[in-house]
Structures are given as structure tokens and as C-alpha cells.
Amino acid sequence: MIPEEPIFSKPTRILYFNQHNTVEVCRFAGEVIRHGGLVAFPTETVYGLGADALNQQAVKNIFNAKERPADNPLIVHVSCIDEVKRIAKSTPKIAQVLMDAFWPGPLTLVLPRKNIVPDVTTGGLDTVAVRMPDHPVALGLIKEAGVPIAAPSANTSGKPSPTTAQHVMDDLGGKIDMIIDGGRVVIGVESTVIDVTGNIPALLRPGGVGIEALQEIVGRIRVSTPKDVNVPHSPGVKYAHYSPEATVVLVTGDDVAGAIKKLAEEYEGKIGLLLCKETAETVGDKGRKIILGSRGDVKSIARNLFYSLRLLDKQRVELIIADGSFSVEGVGLAAMNRLKKASSKLIHTR
Fold first, then answer.
1. pTM of structure
2. CATH 3.90.180.10 is right for the domain spanning 13-189
3. What does each C-alpha distance from 138 to 33, 62, 79, 132, 314 come to in angstroms?
4. Which GO cellular component terms, listed alphabetically, does the Swiss-Prot or TrEMBL entry include (predicted)?
5. 88-105: per-residue pLDDT in tens?
6. Annotated binding residue 348
7. Residue 157 assigned as binding residue
8. Is 79 marked as binding a ligand?
9. Which fold does the domain 247-349 belong to in CATH?
10. Does residue 68 have a known ligand-binding role?
């Protein structure tokens, strides 16, 4: 955490977004950003905590509010492709191809950084992570602020990412200036992060764009390995992330239902079960059951994951057993990645 004076116990104002007041809400919040404030806002992925990416003190305040490690870089959000030139030293041809294919949308590109971007925003790296979100509030806010906006997820570092404005208030109320309430987000997990600074694009973090869709556009993609994360070029790869207060056990393999039923029957405390629809029918009646979706419906699995982890925390369960029998195609890979990071134990059945 960056050792600056705490910014806590400030009043946090909530603005409610609807289709009729987009301009007014974004104009008001944009002024807060321009003056160095912190605004939480909805995107298509999760809620972000935004500040002027070029204002060193404002970005430091993000780290303080979130209690975030200083070497964990932030994603800089832009409202159009042309704005990338302001913060990136160069745009490789493959980056342009990916922007044309997936922006606006849940894809972040790691590019060579210009010196205008302060070290605090990039974690001291010579690269900058950039994306153009696909949400009217996010795009409107960036335009009205007139600056690129640095925005990690709007939660206390290490907790499940927020998918509603209430999640943001639960974690950051009294620590930030404003929250724009745009309802529950659509995707529910963060963006995919691709490093395009090397000869072969590298997947640093799976997210809202599936690797299959990326491969259709650019061909080969290298998947980063654990040894790559000592110097993180992307958020969400080095530190503990996405963990609720309850202990999480992830069950995968051929007999997920049998293993979950046995674990639930043996546990004496308050228990929650995150299940695929097919598994829920066979695991018995013990515990608070939440159905994330069918095994092949990975969009529902992803959208409901963080929301459900936070819901079970509200219900004060002590153990969460998570069903890992869903597909890992598309955004399913991101959902599995987040569950593995949230879990303290992995059980693979045969």
C-alpha cells in the first residue's frame, strides 16, 4: 500500500443512472474526476473505481481506498481508439486488429507506455494496460472528464469484485467521493488482458473475451505461466484475489456431485453451495444452495459468480463449496480462474 494520508470518513454520494440522465450524471461525475476525486462507476464487466490516470495523487488515492499493493498496475480506460495515442508510445499492428475486433468491450491490451502516464498508474512498468469499455456510463464519464481514467475494480483489494453499486458501498463507502449506480453488471467478471508488446500475443488474465474468439482473429496466443507473475504486467495475476470471508473449496473432476454431497454432510458449520443446475439435483438438501447456471451456460456462471460469493458472505456461511463441473470455453475460463484464486483448497475427483 502507498503510504499517503488516509482519505477515509468522507461522504460518498450516490448518483442513480437511467437512460434519460446519462449526460447529466456523467457530466457531474466527470467534474469530480477532473478535480482529483474518486468515482465508482459501472462497466459491462464489474464496477470500476476511477480517477484521472495522469494525476499521480488521484491514482495514489485509489490504492489507499482499496488497500491495494503499489506494484499492482491499473487499467487505463479510454472512450475511443484515438485516445490510445495519448498514453501509448506505439500501437503494434496486432493491437489495432484486436481493437477493431473487440472494442468497445471486455478486452485490455498491454502496450508500450508514454512518459505522460505516471509510474503509480503502471506499477512502475514501461507498459500501460488500456481498454475501451462497452457501457454508456463508462464511456460518457471518460468523455466528460476529458482524461483517461485509471480504474481497477471498486472493492477492497482481495475481495470478490463488485457487480452492483451496493457491493461498492459495502467495501468503499466513506472512502470515495461518488458511486454511480447503474444496476447489476452484464458480464460479471473482469476483462481479458493481452500483452501485445512481444512477438506473440500473451494472455495474462482470462476474462470477458474468450481465448477462442481471440485466436480466430490473431491465431496463436501464448498463455502466461506462474513464473511470469513476479513482475505483474496485469492486475489480477500476482496477489490473492476474489476471496470472500468464508473458506472456499473448489471441486472438479468426474464425480463432483458425490464429492460435494459428502463434504456437505460431513461439515458441521454453516455451509453454502455454488452449484451448476445439473449438480444441484443430486447433492442432497444440506446447505444454502445457489445455482449459478447450467454447465454449458458459461455466461450465466460468470455473471452470477462474484454476486453469489458476496451473497453467501452476507448470509455468514463459514464454508463455500463450489462446483467446478462447468465448461471452460469462452468466459467459462475466466470463471474457473476466479474460483481457483478464491479457493483455499482444490479437490479433484476421479
1. 0.93
2. no
3. 12, 17, 8, 9, 28
4. cytoplasm
5. 999 999 999 999 999 999
6. no
7. no
8. no
9. Rossmann fold (3.40.50)
10. yes
